[in-house]
Structure formats: structure tokens, C-alpha cells
Design goal:
Blueprint lengths: L1 E9 L2 E9 L23 H14 L2 E3 L18 H22 L2 H7 L3 E4 L4 E2 L5 E7 L3 E4 L10 H22 L4 H6 L14 H7 L10 H14 L1 H9 L4 H22 L3 H20 L1
Parallel strand pairs: 3-4, 4-7
Antiparallel strand pairs: 1-2, 1-6, 5-6, 6-7
Helix pairs in contact: 1-2, 2-3, 2-4, 2-10, 4-7, 6-9, 7-8
Length: about 290
């Protein structure tokens, strides 16, 4: 049984879509070697940089060239243009991996991060009209799509891109140390709904959810709550403070407190410090791109 998490683009709003399904593991070739057998002299500059900054530093293998065993071959997917690989990985490494390594430590990232990162240049369109931005599989692999469309000069574009991987990483951490899902869901126990896509963000906020997708279930609610804070803690606070429903605002703040407590008790991480770190790194990357 393969467990896969999706993040989709739905009418201008980043959403996470979870799915659990059986698979024949067709994306992993039986007996495929995980050893790096490509001679160093035959590698490109980007490959050597990737080895140094991801494989050697964080024990993560990055796949950015065509590999039929790492993508769904039934979809129209293409690898990213080589010139777009380094900019995308700078965002991933700087805002996600390096931020966690700074607030926690490098060993923490090595132990908890997925072993594979797959980059795809094109969109991953679904038959229902949604657009998958990323997916995580069994805590082992995270795939990111639309790499060729990433605009480093756009703060919103960078935040949308990194939001995907932050959300999925929260799920991976939750697999290692479970959060108190029962008490967390009790905050908004009567407001979860399977057809979350038919509800607006405004309605979700008034009920105590940070996004409409957070209403789908407790696990996604927790991941959305954490990832929206990691996206930009200042933007998040402004968003919550602007909610007209006092009850809705209070419930979101209660969930925020549970996220902060979870990171502290489970991993010894100051979550607010992590949020400040990710925000500053995002601003630095965008500023550098515009200069």
C-alpha cells in the first residue's frame, strides 16, 4: 500500500489533497541501484553542486533529469530546463532545509527529511481541473512540479512554491512523532467536511480554519496550520487578525498554540523562531533576485 499526499492548485488557492491507494510500485524499477555510479568527470556543474549541497550535506538525492521510474508516465510531464534547476533548489535548500538546520541542526534534517527530491518542469494537471503542485510518498520522496514556472522575483510565487514542501514535511514529521489529533480536532469538531472544495476560505476562517482545505480532516488541518505560519508569519498574523469572527480567530489561535507546543515537545524546536527564519530567508532570496 502506498500512501501519497498531493498539493493542488485550485482556483488561485494552494490546497492539499490527500489520497491513499494501492499500487504496484510501478514507479520504482525492481533492483534499481541507489549507488552513484556516474564518474565525477562526466557530471555537469549543477550535478556536482547538487551532490555537495543535498546528497553530502543532507543525505537527499535530487532527480532533475528524465527518469520514468520517478514520475507517473501516464501524465504529460517533462523535466525542468537545466537553467531552472539551481534557482528552484536554492529556494528549497535556503528556505526549507537550511532554515530547519539553523533552528534545529543539520543532523535533525538528515534524519527526518525525505531521501529523494524529484523536480518536474511542467504542470501536473488532473482530470478534475485541479493542478498538482507537489506530492509526498511514504515520507521517502517529495516531488515538486512547475519548476520552470517559478519566478524568484515574485515574493508570492516563491511562497507558493515553498508552501508545498513545507506542508508535506509537516506530514513527515507527524509520522515520526504523532500530534494529539483528537484534542486538536476537538477545537473545530463539527466543522470538518469531505467536500471542502465547495466551501470558501472566508467561511473556513470564520469557523476556525486557516484555509478551506484544512477542513478536510485533522491531519491536513494541522499541516495547513503549520505551513501557513512557515510561509510568512507576519502575513499569517495579519490574515488572522483581519478575521471578523471572534470565535473563528480564537480557534485558529488555539490550533497555533498546539502546533507550537508540538514542535517544542516533539523535537525541541522553537516554532516561532523557525517561522522568523523562513520568512527572512524568503525575503533575502526575492531581494537577491531583484538586484
Amino acid at each position: 500500500m502506498k500512501s501519497t499526499k498531493y498539493l493542488a492548485y485550485f482556483g488561485g488557492t494552494v490546497l492539499a489533497i490527500g489520497a491513499l491507494f494501492a499500487s504496484c510500485e510501478k514507479d520504482d524499477k525492481l533492483g534499481e541501484s541507489v549507488l552513484n555510479v556516474t564518474p565525477d568527470e562526466n557530471k555537469s556543474d549543477i550535478d556536482r553542486w547538487v551532490d555537495k549541497e543535498f546528497r553530502d550535506l543532507y543525505n537527499i538525492r535530487v532527480f532533475h533529469k528524465w527518469n520514468p521510474y520517478k514520475v507517473d508516465i501516464e501524465r504529460y510531464l517533462t523535466p525542468p530546463a537545466e537553467e531552472n534547476v539551481r534557482p528552484a533548489l536554492d529556494v528549497v535548500k535556503g528556505i526549507w532545509l537550511d532554515a530547519y538546520a539553523t533552528v534545529a541542526d543539520t543532523l535533525f534534517v538528515k534524519e527526518t527529511a525525505p531521501r529523494e527530491l524529484v523536480l518536474t518542469g511542467s504542470r501536473n494537471m488532473n482530470t478534475n481541473g485541479t493542478n498538482t503542485l507537489g506530492l509526498a510518498e511514504q515520507g521517502y520522496r517529495i516531488s515538486l512540479f512547475e519548476v520552470d514556472a517559478l519566478q524568484l522575483k515574485s515574493e508570492a510565487a516563491v511562497k507558493n512554491f515553498i508552501h508545498t514542501i513545507q506542508h508535506e514535511y509537516v506530514h513527515i514529521l507527524n509520522q515520526r512523532v504523532h500530534f494529539d489529533e483528537q484534542n486538536y480536532m476537538a477545537i473545530t469538531s463539527n466543522a470538518y467536511r469531505a467536500d471542502w472544495q465547495n466551501a470558501s476560505d472566508a467561511e473556513a476562517w470564520s469557523l476556525g480554519f486557516i484555509s478551506n482545505y484544512a477542513r478536510s480532516n485533522g491531519k491536513e488541518d494541522f499541516a495547513e496550520q503549520a505551513s501557513w505560519m512557515l510561509r510568512d508569519i507576519v502575513e499569517y498574523n495579519n490574515k488572522v487578525n483581519a478575521i471578523s469572527s471572534v470565535t473563528g480567530k480564537e480557534k485558529i489561535r488555539k490550533k497555533e498554540a498546539m502546533v507550537v507546543s508540538y514542535y517544542d515537545k516533539a523535537f525541541g524546536i522553537d516554532f516561532y523562531e523557525l517561522c522568523k527564519e523562513t520568512r527572512q530567508r524568503t525575503l533575502d532570496i526575492v531581494e537577491a533576485a531583484n538586484n
